[in-house]
Amino acid sequence: MKTNLRIDKVLEFIPTESTVADIGCDHGYVLIKGVIEGKISQGVGVDVSKGPLQQAISNLEEYKVQEKIEIRLGDGLKPINEGECDICVIGGMGGRLITNILEDNLEKSRSFKRLILQPMNSERILRKFLINNEWTIIEEEILILDRLYLYIVAEKGNMKVDNDFIYDIGPILSTKNSGGRDKYIQEKISKLQHILLNINKGKENDEHKVNEIEKLIEKWRSYLEN
């Protein structure tokens, strides 16, 4: 199987011999590679689209792992039985959609021992949901490829948040001193500066909004200086 750094990063967070549900599994490569490497003992792949699932089934046969992985058509966690898997992987979609998937099936969500999430955006919404629903974020990492990919790993437990901005920068990421974290912060600042530029170009200058964005930029910058 070809090297895929995004898949490899997910597998780093999966303990050996885990049972894993991959929601939005696409062609099933996370589960397939996990089984081949001994990380996954049994897996369930779920996707809402028939096309990718047909390809996933073909891939299982090609790599001879069909006895250890089951593919199911369905929406979110609905095809998963409560307590069936220890770990849930959801990635490659927006943080709001990931939140909706977890929130719409709270009891099933809480039956997992670990969540491995890779939101493409709206990570504040996702972090806030996790922490407010008795999940502890135990790891956050940035993978730098064609763009920045954020990985959030959570386990059950209570987590205290000192200030509201932690939902933006992340409780673990905020403590790290790494190139990935700095690029993440710089990207956030750049987006906010772009918003400011558009506001200033407009006919009606919203002074209150400008002040709020400027304060937010300073908060992000304060972490670059730490």
| CATH level 4 superfamily of the largest domain | Vaccinia Virus protein VP39
Mean pLDDT, rounded to whole units?
A: 94
How many domains?
Answer: 2
Q: What's the end-to-end separation, in Å?
A: 41 Å
The CATH C-level name of the largest domain is Alpha Beta
Proportion of beta-strand residues: 15-25%
Number of beta strands: 7
CATH topology heading of the largest domain: Rossmann fold
SS field, number of helical segments: 9
Radius of gyration: 19 Å
Helix content: 40-55%
State the secondary-structure class: alpha/beta
Give the helices and strands as they follow along the chain: HEHEHEEHHEHEEHHH
Residue runs with pLDDT of under 50 for 5 or more positions: none
Q: Return the CATH architecture of the largest domain.
A: 3-Layer(aba) Sandwich
Q: What's the main sheet like? A: 7 strands, mixed
- Major beta sheet, strand line-up: 3-2-1-4-5-7-6
How would you sum up the global shape?
elongated
Sum this structure up briefly:
This protein has helices at residues 5-12, 29-36, 50-62, 95-104, 106-110, 123-132, 166-169, 179-201, 207-224, and strands at 18-23, 40-47, 69-73, 87-93, 114-119, 135-144, 148-156. With 226 residues, it is α/β, with parallel strands linked by helices.
Q: Can you offer a commentary on this structure?
A:
The protein is 44% helix and 23% strand. It starts with a helix and ends with a helix. It has 9 helices and 7 strands. The protein has helices spanning 5-12, 29-36, 50-62, 95-104, 106-110, 123-132, 166-169, 179-201, 207-224; strands at 18-23, 40-47, 69-73, 87-93, 114-119, 135-144, 148-156. Strands 3-2-1-4-5-7-6 form a 7-stranded mixed β-sheet, sandwiched between helices. Helix 1 crosses helix 2, helix 4 (95-104) packs parallel to helix 6 (123-132) and helix 8 runs antiparallel to helix 9. The protein folds into 2 domains: 5-168, 3-Layer(aba) Sandwich (Rossmann fold); 180-224. The chain has 226 residues and is α/β, with parallel strands linked by helices.
